[in-house]
Amino acid sequence: MTTAPTTPALPLPARHSGGCPFGPPPAYPEAAATGPVTRAVLPDGDLCWLVTGIAEVRTVLSDRRFSADIRHPTFPLLIAGARELITDNPDFLRLDDPEHARQRRMLTGEFLVKRVETLRPEIQRIVDGALDRMAEGRTTADLVTDFALPVPSLVICLLLGVPYEDHDRFQRLSRTMLNRESTVEQLREAQEEVHDYLRDLTARKRAQPEDDVLSRLAARDDLTPVDVAAMGVLLLVAGHETTANMIALSTALLLDHPEQIPGLADPATLPGAVEELLRLLTIVHTGLPRVALEDVELGGVTVRAGEGVMAMLSTANRDEGAFGGAGHRATDELDVYRDARRHLAFGFGVHQCLGQPLARAELQIALETLFRRLPGLRPAGEREFRTESFIYGMRSLPVTW
Ligand code: HEM
């Protein structure tokens, strides 16, 4: 089934090491320099294709000949041995249409730009509250635990109707699920515990509905309790780890480039600055997995039916033709005044991030408010990156003001 490699296949890096801490692992741009589609080895020893060119990444993510169904026997997995954890009911991120579209449609109304715009005052209140607590009576803090994590966590808890008091528990579980170094046993335990937690919560919502997303899902008779729990887990994990790491990384990067901070203060340039941060940081470093359902000609190679591909958003987002140009810095540098709107940090095609209007609103409000309220913000010690996670980010960012 697998095409014989013509050049040595790249073992996919287990964690981020070397190179710029704000960029992807150097192995990916190095592979991109040799061609848009190259060979790589997955942790279990199977070969896959590393798709690094922007046109080819778009094709993989929008062409129905590539499947996102994790139940496919050769779907590429980034943790060796994890295939035994795949259930018959994956969440819709890992399903194809029509089932993917059926479930996603039930949520689109909750995350529409128009709906999210009405949440802005609430998000602003949450951001201000987190900053009040962080700054009260002190002049140093860890920006990750005191600001970047609580803000998206409070927002998604409010929307879903998950009690924020439980955040330590679900944050610990989502960390385990996102950790590429977790053992299969640790993954199984975390997966079971978080599903049980969401199943219990959904049962309570069915009995006593409130004005939140989980109550509305629980009330539907066209979803099983298992489906509702899977959707809840997806939203809870996707809804806070991603945005939290984007807030922390963006702050650290801006502190390294203070001359660009004024780009956040002007309402005319703030949305563009956030798009540039999303583009440059592209926190899903590991790429998006898909499997070919038929033979496909892609970037000069033939991807055979059954072969796995990893669509690398980070290299696509550094394409000079798409994002470079006269008057702008190179695409591996921050330039908050460039037009980065067509970036792929939220993916592309039918699985493109459902929560992007919410993520954008949270990032704009969090970053603008942080630098406005603490104009003297600066680093205060050794920062630590989250190098082992499927979602790249920061473990700590000591700051003072
Ligand atoms: C900066 C923050 C975020 C980033 C960078 C991000 C990135 C992504 C990416 C790359 C995908 C596509 C995955 C694929 O095609 O395999 C995705 C899908 C998804 N995201 Fe996000 N995300 C962010 C925030 C959020 C938030 C706040 C939510 C929810 C409330 C969310 C919910 C989802 C869901 C439900 C999907 C699955 C969509 C589908 O399969 O149709 N994300 N996200």
The gist of it:
By secondary structure, this protein is α+β, with helices and mostly antiparallel strands. Helix content is 46%, strand content 11%.
Walk me through what this model shows.
This protein has one domain (about 10-400): Cytochrome p450 (Orthogonal Bundle). The chain contains 15 helices and 13 strands. It has helices at about 25-35, 55-60, 100-110, 115-135, 145-150, 150-160, 165-180, 185-205, 215-220, 225-255, 260-265, 270-280, 315, 320-325, 355-375, and strands at about 10, 35-40, 45-50, 65, 140, 290, 295-300, 300-305, 310, 380, 385, 395, 400. The strands form 4 sheets. A 6-stranded mixed beta sheet has the order 1-2-3-9-6-4. Strands 5-13-10 form a 3-stranded antiparallel beta sheet. Strands 7-8 form a two-stranded antiparallel sheet. Helix 6 runs antiparallel to helix 10 (about 225-255), helix 7 (about 165-180) packs across helix 8 and helix 10 runs parallel beside helix 15. The chain starts with 9 loop residues before the first strand and ends with a strand. Protoporphyrin IX containing FE (HEM) binds next to helix 10 and helix 15.
